[in-house]
Fold:
Amino acid sequence: MTVSRTICLGFLAVIAVGTILLMMPFSTSSGEWNDPIVALFTSTSAVCVTGLGVVDTGTYFSFWGQLFIVLLVQIGGLGYMTTTTFLILLIGRKFDLRQKIAIQQALDRPGMSGSTQIIRSIIAVTLIFEITGIFLLLPAFVPDYGWQQGLWLAIFHSVNSWNNAGFSLFKDNLIGYQSSVLLVLTVTGLIIFGGIGYQVILEAFLWIRDRIRHKQEKLLFSLDFKVAISTTIVLLIVGTIAFFFVELRNPQTFANLKFFDKILVAWFQSVTPRTAGFNTIDISKMTTAGLFITIALMFIGASPGGTGGGMKTTTLRVLTSCTQAILQGKEEVILYERKIALPLILKAVGVLIGSVGTVILSTILIALTDPKLDFIQILFEVVSAFATVGLSTGITGTVSTVAKLILIATMYVGRVGVLLLMSAILGDPRPSRIHYPEENLLVG
Structure:
C-alpha cells in the first residue's frame, strides 16, 4: 500500500460513502430511494469538486441531500489527506512519517517539515474565506428568499465557490444574478483565491503582515507565487477580453445586455472556467469560438495546492518557457531568473501527455456510446469533467448510462491526478543505475 494508492483509495472510499448517503430516501425531495447512477454521479462530482449534475440539485435533493453534497464538496476541496490529518489532529493524535509523506505528495510540497502547521493554516484560510463569502452573499439572497432560505443559499454557494465546485440550487445556475455586482465579485473572488493555492495566500498574508509591522527584511516570494499570480492575472485579462469580443454580437448571450453588464458577464465567464463551474449565461447558446475558448481555459485550470483542477498554471508556464528556450537557442529553461530542474520539466510533459490522452480517450468512448451528440458538446463535457470544472452545454443528464460512467471515471482521474493514479497502479518507480548512450533524433 503505497502513498499514492492510499490517496486514490481514500477518494474512492469518500465517493462510496457519499453514494450510499445520497441513495437514502431522506436525501431526495420525493422521499424515495435514489437512482444508484444519479447518486454515484453526484457523489463523484461533489468529491471531485466538479459540479456536473444529471439532475437539478435544488429540486431533486432534500435539505439533507444538499447538506451531504456540501460536506462532500468540502472534503473534496480540502483533499482526502488534509481532511484525514485534520481529524487526527482534532482527537489529539500524532501522525507518523508515512502520513507526512502522504501530505507532502497530496499538497505537492517540496518537504515534509511543518506539515501540522500547514494543515492548520489550510483549515483556517478555508474557514475565513468561506465565512466571509457567506456574509457577503447574504444581501444578495435574503431580500429574495428570506433569512432561513437566504442563509442556506449563501452557505451552499460560498462553499461551492471556494472549493471551485459548480453546484447551484437554482435551475438556471446564477444567470438570474448576472447583473448583481456584489454576487459576481464575491463568487469570482472566492473562485480565484480558492484555486490559486494555499501557499500563495499564505505568502501574501506574510507579506502584508510584514508591511504593516514595517519590517526592514523583505519577504522573497517563491517561484510558485510569482508564476501562479502572473499567469492567473494574464489568463483572467485575456479571457475577459476574448469573451467580450467573441460573444459581443451574440443575441443569446451578450448582445442584449447593457455595456456594464457585458463586462461583468465577460469577467465572470473568464473566471468560472478556471475549474469553478458556475455560469451567468446559457453555455449552450455560446458561439463555437466562445466554447473553444472556454475549453482551453478549462483545460489549463487552476494553480497547484488549491481547490481547482486542470493541467495547472505552473505546468503551462514550464511548457511555454521550454518553447521559449528552444526558440532562443538556450539549453536551460529559465523562469524569473531561476533555472527549472529537468525532473520538473519531465513532470510537466508527463502531465500534458496524460491529460491530453485522458481527454482523447474519454471523447472517443462517449462519441461511440452517444453518436448523436455533436463533437463540440462531447469535447466540452469531457474537458469539463477532467478539469473538474462543472460547466456543461446541457447534455449531462441526457447522455447514456455508459457515458455517465465514463464521465465519472474522467472526473476521478482529473481530481486525483494522472501521474498520481498511474503511480498508484504501477507502483513507485525503482531507481536504476543503468545509463544508456546518447543519440540524436529528428524532432519537429
